[in-house]
Amino acid sequence: MKKYYIIQFIILIILIFLYGCKKDNKIEKTDYKITDIESKVDNYLVTFIELGSINCVPCKMMQPIMKQVEEKFDGQVKVIFYDVWTQKDASMSQKYGIRVIPTQIFLDSNGNEYFRHEGYFPFEELEKILKQKGVK
């Protein structure tokens, strides 16, 4: 009987992980405008907000990608990370209306959200989204 519960638990963990890593977890953008610090970043074409955690496997996989974005598009893209599993940043999950982590939100230079993605986001795909707003 104990083995049955262990197998169920393992299957549940695998399903949760796979949902977070699903390639086509794109959702429609929202119509709200960010009016706090994210929209007041001067001279950036795009603000890339990553909502995740340092303890989540797909989120850990996003860390080197965020670093790569910062290095490759320095001065064009502002990268902001919120660890929504910490007390400090927990409110951000409600503020941005996220359903899963990691979630990536892209804001244009006016602070308007123009794209949102859920789950692991490969650099090559992320780069295409940045280039929509003139990032080179």
Overall shape: it is elongated
Would you give the CATH topology? Glutaredoxin
Distance between the termini: 57 Å
* Major sheet size, sense and barrel closure: 5 strands, mixed
Structural class: alpha+beta
The CATH C-level class name: Alpha Beta
Q: Give the tally of structural domains.
A: 1
Q: Biggest sheet: strands side by side, in what order?
A: 1-5-4-2-3
Report the uncertain regions.
Answer: 22-35
Notes on the structure:
The chain has one domain: Glutaredoxin (3-Layer(aba) Sandwich), CATH 3.40.30.10. It is of the alpha+beta class and 136 residues long. The protein is built from 4 helices and 5 strands; from the N terminus they run αββαβαββα. It starts with a helix and ends in a 5-residue tail after the last helix. A 5-stranded mixed β-sheet has the order 1-5-4-2-3, covered by helices on one side.
